[in-house]
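Put briefly, the fold is written as integer tokens. One such record reads:
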Amino acid sequence: MSSAIPYIPDNAPFTPEQRAWLNGLLAGMFSSVPQAAVEAKPSRRIAVLYASQSGTAESLARRLSKELKAQGHAPAVSTLIGYTPAALAAESCALILASTYGDGDAPDGVQPFYEQLCLEHFPRMERLSYGVFALGDKHYEHFCKFGRDLDAKLASLGANRLTDRVDCDGDADEPFAQWRTAIVARLKEESFVQPRAVFTGGPEPKASLAGAAGHLGTSARSPAKTFTRDSPLLASVIDKRSLTHATSTKSTLHVAFSIEGTGLAYEVGDACGVIPINDLNLVAEILQKLRFNGNEQVASTKEGTTTLYSALAHERQITRLNRKMVQGYAKEGNCTALLDLLRPENQGSLDAYVYDRGLIDLLTEYSGAIDDPNELVALLPKLSPRLYSISSSPAAHAGQIHTTVAVVRFTAHNRERGGVCSTFFADRTMLADRLPIYVQPNKKFKLPSNPDTPLIMIGPGTGIAPFRGFLHERRALGHKGKNWLFFGERSSATDYLYRNELESMRADGHLTRLDTAFSRDDGEKVYVQDRMMEQSPQLWRWLQDGASVYVCGDASRMAKDVHGALCRIVQEQGAMTAQAAEEYVGALKDEHRYHRDVY
């Protein structure tokens, strides 16, 4: 009988530190095995590193780790937050899954790693083999910029690229599978063998894990039931109401779910993932265009097959186009105009074409290209969940999750269009409906551990969501720290979200300060960053008193403008140079006093 040294896997109910301690203990117990009893098995230590903002990169990193283990390797999964270039230089192989956040930035907490990596004096990395899988959103100008920059920097330091970087937009499953396959193949090609002890006979050392678990305390207990995007909770809708006036040019909803007795838990700052259903009228129109009846069997995104109707309704993205979809459609139908649009020199025209079109537009403008249902679904990306910042508090709203949803509607190419999930809420969801949801933790957007810490919260529009949760949580838990909220929208009369709650909190003193900016109420447009500048001396005093700053909302403009205003306030009130002010704000990040949840 032969047996390998036992080890504690990544999915065991221990923290990383506890797993490391246990595995070290087991390695020591087995270290007395005679050399003659050891045989070599192909294995390689591989650092699997992730830079994640919403959790996708982390999830993919853990999937990659399982695959590498199945191949006989020894993966070590770690976030790049707190990781150092020196640790990377000490590795022989590193696989990095890197999300780009906001306006081409590294995710929160990862920027210090990248800045240190870019120092001119940093040592060469000729011993390192690496691969980069980059995630991003093509709707942003700097698509996958952090992943691209990281790949280029490692190559410039002499590291050996195992396979070409993959830049992923939207559904990651297929590009990730292709990248993973290429990586595994390259690892097999490389001659990297490290011995691992395997028993060939005789009595085996006995390790008492019961004693070790006792040493680790209560965190070693079995984890509570969890719900994920692949295994969501069907939660009942218990509240749905408009937060905007009927005369508003916008529509924002408050939607609440019951999670009573389900075991689903969250913290303020987390996000609620919702798995939507496509507009069934649009699905019917697509089937009519294609002259399919919807009962055709096609490949499912899960396992096995499903009907074409179900695939279009529940599994596939049909309201947006991307280059891959246009390319596949043009090839299937030999569409000359589309093939011309795909030429490199026409990238600008292609971007304009896909910006506000969906599958129905391809079928209308270039009919007859598809006659096989499976060819159709193969072109379509997986329908992704939508994430909404949770606007409730587990302490104040026990058994409930609240979300704040801006309903997206627009007209393009003579067709009324809208956001998949927001119109699902607005038009196709009723009270008592049960929708699939899960919680996406946001470890970087939590309340300070000290309940006396002052908070400065900046959240225009639906960016108010997490701060409503913060305020209710602090009140329910009796936190004494001061609270200051900057909120902005178009009109006070029609778009003042949660007005009664906020003004009641201001009246009783729980909300120490409330500054609002309604851009269309006066002749001159005023935004939250303008209100910040007006209150510069007071805001600087709060910072000097240890306040933590939180920003939530639009990344493309608001977050940059707020950051600029914060730096100007520090520069002017602190009598600093522009560079010193930037360094001060950077120090706030390092001290976990400046948090951003932007999208």
